């Protein structure tokens, strides 16, 4: 291996932050002593040496985060790559330009360093939480789109376009990028309403992953397998986001039942894949045994405030998935009836 004693995640993060500080101060010094109006090359030798060392060390440090999780490493590598590119641009500008562009390049380096200080997580679980939150926000945005469709379709006012707009057809609006102005029919509104519970249950399942999976503590000896499982879980989450977007796209009027049925089925399958990954022994604690449940009930009967009720997290996820399947099947049954008619 590269290192006989791999550095801990905390040590790596501290080193990474220290190197970011060194890059910030070094670029500031270099900019001051090499400014085109009064360059002082000899005075720049020390800061240039410090900057070169810091950049090399930052790149090396970023690769070492692989030891503690792929998601965390992706944050560190992405920030390091952007900073290295910005420093290169600054160097080229100082060498070739006599204007004020060097100030812009310096500001870019400083902005990227500050962003890395804020955004590079302290550990892989935190990194996964950040990505998970971003996916959840996109899911909630999609639900908001669906709610807006229904609200606008149910408005009493027939149209909100002026006379000039009414002269345009749907194809003309599509060509200039505004999309179709076609209103939903009553049947399409009812279809869209049937999709709402499906999407809400899916978001609920996705949201519960944070407190029930990502908030769990793991012994040090299990950290590697836990991180690997979390890294593998993220693509499942993003697949759900993409599948949700396809459902939303299929809901816009004029709806095509076959396309909507296909999108709903794909969304249901994506959620099922996410659930399958979630309920692994690596991510979820084993289901409580009869003994655990008996102890919990006994504690409740005795009024022992120190004991907490045993929570069967797996059962909750299973029940939520069952509701998602039920909602998806209800939508597809309605669509099948529309196709038959």
Structure description:
The protein is mainly alpha-helical and 341 residues long. The protein has twelve helices and no strands. It is elongated.
Features:
341 residues; elongated
User: Structural class, from helix and strand content?
Assistant: mainly alpha
Q: Report the average pLDDT across residues.
A: 86
- The geometry reads as elongated
What's the tally of helices?
Answer: 12
Please give the number of β-strands: 0
Question: What's the end-to-end separation, in Å?
Answer: 66 Å
Report Rg.
28 Å
Multimeric organization: single chain
Portion of residues in helices? over 70%
Poorly predicted parts: 161-165
Order of helices and strands: HHHHHHHHHHHH
**How does the major sheet shape up?**
none
Instruction: Give the strand content.
Output: under 5%
Outline of the structure:
The protein has helices spanning 9-33, 41-64, 70-96, 101-119, 124-153, 163-166, 170-175, 186-214, 223-251, 257-278, 290-302, 313-340. The protein is mainly alpha-helical. It starts with 8 loop residues before the first helix and ends with a helix.
Strands, helices and their partners?
Layout: H1 9-33, H2 41-64, H3 70-96, H4 101-119, H5 124-153, H6 163-166, H7 170-175, H8 186-214, H9 223-251, H10 257-278, H11 290-302, H12 313-340
């Amino acid at each position: 291996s590269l290192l006989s004693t791999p550095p801990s995640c905390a040590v790596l993060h501290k080193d990474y932050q220290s190197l970011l500080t060194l890059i910030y101060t070094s670029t500031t010094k270099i900019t001051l002593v090499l400014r085109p109006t009064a360059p002082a090359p000899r005075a720049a030798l020390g800061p240039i040496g410090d900057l070169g060392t810091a950049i090399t060390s930052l790149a090396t440090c970023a690769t070492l985060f692989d030891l503690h999780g792929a998601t965390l490493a992706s944050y560190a590598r992405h920030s390091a790559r952007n900073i290295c590119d910005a420093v290169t641009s600054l160097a080229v500008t100082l060498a070739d330009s006599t204007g004020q562009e060097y100030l812009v390049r310096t500001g870019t380096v400083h902005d990227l360093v500050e962003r890395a200080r804020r955004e590079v997580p302290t550990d892989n679980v935190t990194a996964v939480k950040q990505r998970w939150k971003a996916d959840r926000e996109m899911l909630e945005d999609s639900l908001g789109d669906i709610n807006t469709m229904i609200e606008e379709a149910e408005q009493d006012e027939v149209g909100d376009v002026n006379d000039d707009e009414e002269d345009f057809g749907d194809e003309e609006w599509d060509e200039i990028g505004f999309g179709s102005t076609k209103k939903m029919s009553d049947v399409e509104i009812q279809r869209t309403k049937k999709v709402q519970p499906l999407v809400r249950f899916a978001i609920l399942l996705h949201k519960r992953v944070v407190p029930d999976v990502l908030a769990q503590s793991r012994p040090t000896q299990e950290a590697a397998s836990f991180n690997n499982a979390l890294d593998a879980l993220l693509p499942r989450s993003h697949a759900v986001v993409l599948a949700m977007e396809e459902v939303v796209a299929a809901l816009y009027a004029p709806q095509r039942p076959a396309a909507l049925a296909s999108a709903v089925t794909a969304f249901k399958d994506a959620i099922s894949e996410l659930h399958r990954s979630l309920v692994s022994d690596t991510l979820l604690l084993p289901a409580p045994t009869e003994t655990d449940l008996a102890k919990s009930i006994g504690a409740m009967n005795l009024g022992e405030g120190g004991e907490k009720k045993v929570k069967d997290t797996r059962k909750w996820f299973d029940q939520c998935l069952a509701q998602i399947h039920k909602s998806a099947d209800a939508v597809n049954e309605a669509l099948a009836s529309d196709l038959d008619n």
